[in-house]
Amino acid sequence: MWQSPTSNEPAHLASGVALWELGRFDVYRVNPPLIRAIAAIPVMMNGCKTHWNNLRYGPQVRSEFAIGADFVKVNRLDSVHLFNLARLACLPFSILGAWCCYLWGRALCGSLSGFLSCVLWCFSPNILAAGQVICPDMGGASLGLVASYTFWRWLKALSWESAALCGATFGLALLARSSWIVLFGLWPSIWFVVFLLQIQKNGVSTSLRSQIGQMTLLFGVSLYVLNLGYLFDGTLMRLGDFEFVSQRLGNPQPDARSGNVFKDGHFAFIPVPLPKEFVLGLDQQKKDFEAFPHASYLRGEWRMSGWWYYYLYGFLVKVPASILCLVLISICVSFQKLPRIELDHVAGWMSLCLPGLATVVILSCQPSLNHHFRYALPAFGPLFVFAGSIPFTIRRWKQNLRLAVIALTMTCVVSLITTTLTTAPRFISFFNLVAGGARQGHRHMIHSSLDWGQDLYFLKEWLQQQQIDQPIHLAYHGVFDPADIGIDHVPARCGPHWMTSASPDETSDLWVISVNYLVGDRWRLSPNCHYEEFLRKTPIHVCGDSLYVYKIPHDRRE
Fold first, then answer.
1. Global pTM?
2. Is 91 helix (H, G, I), strand (E, B) or coil?
3. Where are the extended beta strands (E) located within 332-437?
4. Contacts by 309-314, CB closer than 8 A, 24 or more apart
5. Which residue in 67, 135, 142, 52 sits closest to 384, CA to CA?
6. Angle at alpha carbon of residue 140, lines to 135 and 141, rounded to 5°
7. What phi and psi, each to the nearest 5 degrees, are found at residue 416?
8. How far apart (Å, rounded) are the C-alpha atoms in residues 293 and 288?
9. 8 Å CB contact between 348 and 289
10. Domain positions in the chain
11. Which residues, given as ranges, of the chain have pLDDT below 50?
């Protein structure tokens, strides 16, 4: 808990508190409610203060960030403790992911591979970064792994009990991450391929009617769990009654905030078996993907359109080089003579890998929102299981060659553990050696891959060590006032943090600038203002990896 609340955490936590206190599912609707609801439980039990004056409702209304800033403001220094409680409540999702990686690896390749897959999960900086914050990325990735595992178990058992269990885990995954809705199309496709392979292998058709019935039960249970998580709010609402904001579903007129392309069509009277806010959240995400109002950044370039290879590039610079080496080794040994793979294992690898692969493909097809590499987190579990399959693949090789591969594998594992321990606790800003490390990360990616507003505690600690008692000039790329957690500052000239304006105070020689602003981010900055000029100067200190401290005397300011 060494890192200050990130830009999204106050919004998630305040939205979770609003869910319990006000029964509002519309706040932060782009994310399903499960993770924030769990995070808010210990906070509510601890007696947090709330302030709802900025809470609004309506099409295109996004009040979660305003109420998140209000939450920090009314709780002030107590918010540090509250965020720690909320983060601890989300920690079991990381453990769940590690356990599921072990289950997947053991089932597909044996206990040793399961252990190796679990180690890769536990010591991955990307996993540790997502696991220490209040966001749905970790919970969604872990529950997605569980759902895929239970789906594979159903394919093996083909029983009504396993179908019901799979439906329940699928529903929980949907309550954590709405993008798992792709499984409604992907799982029937996997089942059909496996069904055809079974016919080819056995020469006879198995119980098709029973399998279709079980899959119907599976999806029925998942929809029930999903709607139960929303307390059936707006379930079975008619399609024509929704107020959509995306061009694809709403096509709103220039003078309107919402619309509905189905309103006067033949499908208007169809009841939608999904919660109202779940549907509207998907629509809001679609709108963001259609035309996100902020430019994306990659390798020193800003674009409104983004890059289709953004996430692929992210894997090359954000994933530890040792894990990339293990994946490369696994690919190389797979080209050798493979052990015979049973049909159950073919179904297992499809069930494991295709959902994560589909996530990356869908994200790559929506390049207008290239801000967060963490969106690709569902692909990490399958990646670790694949990398952990090396012992299984080489188990029948000649001893000398097998020992050489094992030695290389162990070298990579030791390197990973060493890298992770030396990186701690700055996992969010991790970049591998190929990218030049975190201090060169701004040459590749920013936002939640480098500067997510997480380093205020490091700044506070440094100010105390230096015994600096005068206010500093602070341009902080975050959504709440750093003064609320005890950082004495004056707003820098271009608009430093949420809902503040620049201050004329010129008494301090210290300027602290978020690296996002240093490379040209314009989010919430005053017109025609920028901080790129500071990159030509040498900072006297870097707090964490994202807050650069400059000492600029009055007579030398540009």
1. 0.94
2. helix
3. none
4. 309/364, 310/363, 310/364, 310/367, 310/370, 310/373, 311/360, 311/363, 311/364, 311/373, 311/375, 311/376, 312/360, 312/364, 313/444, 313/445, 314/373, 314/376, 314/445, 314/449
5. 142
6. 110
7. -60, -50
8. 8
9. no
10. 9-88, 455-556
11. 496-505, 557-558
